[in-house]
């Protein structure tokens, strides 16, 4: 069974940076496409970023393009989300997700991901 554990959340001022980490256990990380979703209070959960199992293909939500970078280290079974120029609207609970990798498929829909972490809270103060 795949287990995802996030870390790195916290409180940061607008314009600041944070790096989230997520470790996959229970299976081989390189068999999975991994990424991040987020959910702000009172809002629906939304896609943030995804990285292919090779780490060579990425996709981002328009709202974070140019500010967030997703990457992975399969040797550490980990995926990362480096966030720069944080805004108050980035405040949310951030979830790490994983989906068994399929050739040529980089999923961005919530329903595409079977495995979810518990989430880590990021609060950006203005």
Give the biggest sheet.
Answer: 7 strands, mixed
The proportion of strand residues reads over 45%
Distance between the termini: 40 Å
- Summed up, the helix count is 0
**Global geometry:** globular
As a whole number of angstroms, the C-alpha radius of gyration is 13 Å
* H/E series: EEEEEEEEEEE
Round the mean pLDDT to the nearest integer and report it: 97
Helix content class: under 10%
Structural class: mainly beta
Query: Residue ranges: pLDDT <50 for 5 or more in a row?
Result: none
Structural description of this entry:
The protein is mainly beta and 126 residues long. Helix content is 0%, strand content 50%. The strands form 2 sheets. Strands 2, 4, 5, 6, 9, 10 and 11 form a 7-stranded mixed beta sheet that branches. It has a 4-stranded antiparallel beta sheet with strand order 1-3-8-7, with no helix packed on it. A hairpin with a 6-residue loop joins strand 4 (32-39) and strand 5 (46-51). It is globular, with a radius of gyration of 13 Å. The protein starts with a strand and ends with a strand. The model has no long low-confidence stretch (mean pLDDT 97).
How are the SSEs ordered, and which strands pair?
Layout: E1 3-7, E2 10-13, E3 18-25, E4 32-39, E5 46-51, E6 58-60, E7 68-73, E8 78-83, E9 92-100, E10 115-116, E11 120-125
Parallel strand pairs: 2-11
Antiparallel strand pairs: 1-3, 3-8, 4-5, 4-9, 5-6, 7-8, 9-10, 9-11
């Amino acid at each position: 069974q795949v287990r995802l554990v996030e870390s790195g959340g916290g409180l940061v001022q607008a314009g600041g940076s944070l790096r989230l980490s997520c470790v996959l256990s229970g299976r081989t990380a390189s068999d999975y496409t991994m990424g991040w979703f987020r959910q702000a209070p009172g809002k629906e959960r939304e896609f943030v970023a995804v990285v292919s199992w090779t780490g060579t293909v990425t996709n981002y939500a328009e709202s974070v393009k140019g500010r967030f970078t997703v990457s992975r280290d399969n040797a550490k079974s980990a995926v990362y989300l480096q966030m720069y120029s944080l805004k108050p609207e980035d405040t949310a609970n951030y979830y790490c997700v994983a989906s068994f990798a399929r050739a040529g498929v980089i999923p961005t829909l919530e329903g595409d991901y079977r495995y979810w972490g518990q989430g880590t809270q990021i609060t950006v103060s203005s």
